[in-house]
Write a structure and sequence with these properties.
alpha+beta, MetI-like fold, Rossmann fold, OB fold (Dihydrolipoamide Acetyltransferase, E2P), 3 domains, 46% helix, elongated, binds adenosine-5'-triphosphate, transport, transmembrane helix, ModB_ABC, P-loop_NTPase, Molybdate ABC transporter permease subunit
């Protein structure tokens, strides 16, 4: 059952008018069937006039389709992909013939291309071409009314195609032409075919514009619809017979498109659990698990990375081969922009120089940089099998199909998805799709690997499992790998270095241990689950926090006043019902705002001067009888306060 339909009784208030509507549409068509002179049908349809008109109809509609494709495909492309002034106006112009009365379209064509029209006299004097009352004129009239169907349908398909598929193909080494041929075209093909079929059917049925612009000349402009009109005056049965022929053609076109237009489109679920019904699984044995032999091309190579990114995002990255860098930062910090700058896919920031090994990739177009990108959802090409997806980069680099498939099988097997080689991406679970996307990127033998939130789409338990696999395979990748993530656990557990971006700037580029010890921004500290307050150190060893409160730190502070961050781990914060006596030098009052469970402990947010998060055991919470809204005393030992100068 499709998502939107529900079983149950149809309310008569809707059912009755709906039935009337169906009857209203059906009756005239049934009338044609009822009044068709079945006995004489073959002879009527086989007559010279009808076959001539049919031939002309096919010729005119065929030319109209060809012209619509030649002119309409580029127009649809521009409308979908390029921003230009007056775009809304152009789109309106394209749709106009769909809503204009056809006779008005005919008059417009006469005024444009007719003998006394704007262009007509020029066409006649320069090329000796007269369009009205010619077959070429009938083609023009048909093209005028039919092309919009193609443009609108293809524009919709192109606009619906997310650019990440094409960008991923580029990052795997495909030239723009190859991307168009192997990704764009197959992915918009249903839209193109549907548009072409509708456009052709519209051209075949064209009447008003043709009779107005091109007249009704047997053998020259008299197509089937015009013949119907003529026959109706003195041979109604003949008109009905020819109408039946047109009705049959129109129905055939619609039936051939039924998947797209006549049924409620099922949403393709991109990622389903494994073990789907339908396509049988290939036995694992059919997959070559061994390393590919006879391939003289090297695998990924250990290359260092050095780059400076400027523009909307700025960063300096210097990393040894085999380094995994986690790129973290709040929403809109510029993480994706950084990756796109490395890929050469944005004008908003540029990586220059971009030295990978001893090559400066910044001088190369995106498809020659050998920087493989795994976007958030993997962007597996839905029209290709897992195997063809994985071999895509190798094929783009000119590796023969057999060798490319052998190597792709090897990578799929290494990522433990070898038995899924013949499935399509829509038949993979989230975790499987993620592994295939990684296999595809690694198989392309990248010099730099970019993963954009590789685990974001997975649920918690799958995430832990895939994180483990990812860690294993990243350990094998000899080059530099950048992983964008929002998840501190992912950052700390997967990466050797962490690059923190905020507002497009690099705030910190350090090892996870260094980052945990000395977070250089409140966001980093909070990401790591720590309390952090911005403030100024004083010569007396006190920290004046920006909010007005102050803290005492045991470690010596910089001799003179400095801006910095006071950091306190939540486990070092104690809560009390009464004011504590004794050693802690930082004590203040607050109110419990929120209590949340994390692992086996409780995180308690206390609003006060300053706000603080404490992490305590459930038993101490029970001892204190903690509940939200309750006033408490907070204490932090001076030895637990770290000051990080900024
Ligand atoms: N094509 C664009 N044109 C103009 N501004 C853009 C464009 N793409 C992104 N931005 C802006 O640039 C900033 C950085 O965006 P980016 O997508 O790199 O952030 P991010 O760190 O990846 O964010 P998130 O974590 O939300 O994915 C944001 O303020 C965003 O609105």
């Amino acid at each position: 059952m499709t998502g939107g339909t529900r079983p149950g009784r149809t309310p008569w208030a809707l059912g009755l008018p709906a039935a009337l509507a169906v009857g209203f549409l059906l009756l005239p068509l049934a009338g044609i069937l009822a009044r068709t002179p079945w006995a004489t049908l073959p002879s009527r349809l086989g007559s010279h006039e009808v076959t001539e008109a049919l031939g002309l109809s096919l010729l005119v509609s065929g030319w109209a389709l060809l012209l619509s494709l030649l002119l309409g495909v580029p127009l649809a492309w521009l409308l979908a992909r390029v921003d230009f002034p007056g775009k809304a106006l152009v789109r309106c112009l394209v749709m106009l013939p769909m809503v204009l009365p056809p006779t008005v379209a005919g008059v417009a064509l006469l005024q444009g291309y007719g003998r006394r029209g704007v262009l007509g006299p020029w066409l006649e004097s320069w090329f000796g071409v007269t369009l009205p009352f010619s077959t070429a004129g009938a083609v023009m009239a048909s093209t005028f009314v039919a092309m919009p169907f193609l443009v609108i349908s293809l524009e919709g398909a192109l606009a619906g195609l997310h650019p990440r598929y094409e960008e991923t193909a580029t990052s795997l080494g495909a030239t723009p032409l190859r991307v168009f041929r192997t990704v764009t075209l197959p992915m918009v093909l249903p839209g193109l075919v549907a548009g072409a079929a509708l456009s052709w059917a519209r051209a075949l049925g064209e009447f008003g514009a043709t009779i107005t612009f091109a007249g009704n000349l047997p053998g020259t402009t008299q197509t089937l619809p015009l013949q119907v009109y003529l026959l109706l005056q003195d041979d109604p049965e003949g008109a009905t017979a020819v109408s039946l022929l047109l009705l049959a053609i129109a129905t055939a076109v619609l039936l051939s498109l039924r998947g797209r237009w006549l049924t409620t489109k099922k949403q393709t679920v991109p990622q389903q659990p494994s073990g789907l019904p339908g396509r049988p699984e290939r036995p694992t044995g059919s997959v070559d698990q061994s390393a590919p032999e006879g391939l003289d091309r090297p695998g990924p190579v250990p290359l260092p990375l050095r780059t400076t990114v400027t523009g909307a995002t700025t960063a300096d990255i210097d990393a040894q081969p085999g380094t995994t860098i986690a790129v973290v930062g709040p929403n809109g910090a510029g993480k994706t922009t950084l990756l796109r700058a490395l890929l050469g896919l944005t004008d908003r920031a540029a990586a220059r120089p971009l030295t990978i090994g001893d090559t400066d990739a910044s001088k190369l177009p995106p498809h020659r940089r050998r920087i493989a990108w795994v976007p958030q959802d993997g962007a597996l090409f839905p029209h290709l099998t897992t195997l063809a997806n994985t071999a895509y980069g190798l094929r783009a680099q000119g590796v023969p199909r057999k060798d490319a498939h052998r190597e792709a099988r090897h990578w799929l097997a290494r990522l433990e998805v070898g038995d899924l080689a013949h499935r399509r991406p829509g038949e993979l679970s989230g975790g499987q799709a993620q592994r295939v996307a990684l296999a595809r990127a690694l198989a392309a033998r990248p010099r730099l690997l970019l993963l954009d939130e590789p685990l974001a789409a997975l649920d918690q338990s799958t995430r832990a499992r895939v994180r483990h696999t990812l860690r294993t395979h990243l350990a094998d990748f000899p080059g530099v790998c950048l992983i964008v993530t929002h998840d501190p656990v992912e950052a700390v557990s997967l990466a050797d270095r962490i690059l923190v971006l905020e507002d497009g700037r690099t705030v910190q580029y350090a090892s996870p241990a260094e980052l945990t010890r000395h977070p250089r921004s409140p966001w980093v500290a909070r990401m790591l689950g720590r309390n952090a307050w911005q403030g100024t150190s004083t010569a007396e060893g006190t920290l004046l926090l920006d909010g007005g409160a102050s803290l005492v730190a045991a470690d010596p502070l910089p001799g003179k006043a400095a801006n910095g961050l006071a950091v306190v781990g939540p486990e070092a914060v104690s809560l009390h019902v009464e004011r504590p006596a004794g050693s802690p030098r930082n004590v203040w009052r607050g109110t419990v705002r929120e209590i949340t469970a994390q692992g086996g402990r409780l995180r308690v947010l206390v609003a006060g001067e300053p706000d603080v998060v404490a992490e305590i055991t459930p038993s101490s919470a029970a001892d204190l009888a903690l509940k939200e809204g309750m006033p408490v005393w907070v204490s932090v030992k001076a030895t637990e306060v770290t000051f990080v100068a900024l």
